[in-house]
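Re: export button greyed out
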Amino acid sequence: MTQKGSGRLLPAWAKTAIGFVLSLALTGLGLLAITFFIGRVVPIDPVLAVVGDRAPPAVYEAAKERMGLNDPLILQFVHYVAGILRGDFGLSVSTQRPVMEDIARYFPATLEMATLGILIGVVIGVPLGALAAARQGSIIDQVIRVIGLAGYAIPAFWLGLVGLVLFYAQLKWVAGPGRIDIFLDGMVPPVTGLLLVDSLIAGDFESFTNAFSHIILPATILGFFSLAYIARMTRSFMLDQLGQEFIITARVKGVPARVIIWRHAFRPIRVQLITVIGLSYAALLEGSVMVETVFSWPGIGNYLTTALLNADMNAVLGGTLVIGAVFIAINKISDALYRILDPRAR
Amino acid sequence: MALLEVENLKVRFPSESGMVEVVKGVSFSLGQERLGIVGESGSGKSMTGRALLGLIPKPGVVTADRMQFDGIDLTRLNERAFRRLRGARLSMILQDPKFSLNPVMTIGEQIGEALAFHGRMSAREQKQRVLKMLEAVRITDPERVYRLYPHEVSGGMGQRVMIAMMAVLEPDLMIADEPTSALDVSVRGQVLEILDDLVQRTGMGLIMISHDLNMVARWCDRILVMFNGRVVETCAAGKLGEATHPYTRGLLASLPRLDETRQTLPVLDRQSLGGL
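Workaround output, generated via the alternate export path:
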């Protein structure tokens, strides 16, 4: 009875929305718990990072008490979650700023580079993969397979260094490390934190071209890795579809080859590709530490590495949480697109 | 003049041990009639049908002394010319609608596509013709089915959609490759009836490829029996009982009957046919 009643009280879309929010909250809580407890279990003493290793025991104890580290672990966790719900990630030991503020500074740099990278990967990788499948065994197919292999085999830092030597030092086609030249730094008022977008909003084209010249090489290198992966996956998905019976049906109908490839074989794989692209994007957002280091890119990967080396646990937890949240967001967006694009999943 | 004349059709595929011949010189002719091609799996019957439509995948090779469809020499057609013929004048119904319909296109879109690549017509006109065709294959609510996706219809309805898609341009020759094998017994008769209807109404020639001897004998005018890439017997459908070739006799003997009196069902003695 009650079940029926509540079923009538809530329309279907509200149920979906509530389920969505609940699953989001649960995943978020799980993420928080795991990062928090790992952060507390690792043999890093956050107190030492604050007071230094020559502090007298009394100072050490006072600092520990002040940081709440004498409380039971579960209580510490509750305090931590409560802080995060208020938008308080704690203070970074190494930068002496709230972690939230740091993330707002560093994350957009990574977001900008990863987004440009994934755009390059998708715009070039998907057609390449489809072409390779359509001409299986041809020269193009072989070239694309080699690119795919290279994407696995070549380390990012090596490609970054070679890229810098060639395109920056020798050919002078692009600007060097960093986000923008030093004399332009801080000229653009931050709105989104994305330099390319902010400079356009401000109408500052000098900053825009300068920032673009800085970002294009690292973004292309990131893009190359996602391109290699996306092209390989597109190729194998397409080959799978091109072997299906409904491709024969389309040919019997007299449908031209070009239409068979894009309408009949490509449409069914869009859903699979979304997953691949989402994963690849998430990987660029979290795993660009190597490229960020080589290019002195002030991004979240760089921030996290520095924080980790300084035992700056609040910063590490905060950074991990942001990356985790991005991962969850990308997954949820993929799920939603799935439902829109695949009639069988509706 | 015959609608289709085939002489010495061969289909070969390269393999590690040289070329493998799957169709070894098949000859037949077809008027505006129903021709049944029967044979077991691997006898080359499906490959014969696909060769007629130019659908043998690379690296397969098709050769024939003569392969003429309504005055057109099929052996000399390039892919482009074949494409214009396919769907419009030559068509084929595939076996299982679960696999032969595109899962992410609506039924209306898929049938309309056959029209779209042969001649111009307005979107509205195209939809009208699709709806009319759906009605012709006895779909009672064509407006609704038009918008459905293949996974939303039953196997029997899927196969009727397939027939609609392949017949919407009223081809001169239809090849039906095991059109009922994947269906429940209860809807097979209905699908055959619809095909029958189409043949009578439009006067198209039909090649029915099947392994169901009884069905073909009842339903077709003439029968080719294929074995191991060759035609071993050609006869009028009603005279199948008088077939002389040992393979055909063997096949007939191994059909179970309702009023069975034999203790064991005989199987084909392939040893004696090995030389073929």
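The interface with chain B takes residues 244-246, 248-257, 259, 263-264, 267-268, 341-344 of chain A (CB under 8 Å). The button fix ships in the next patch.
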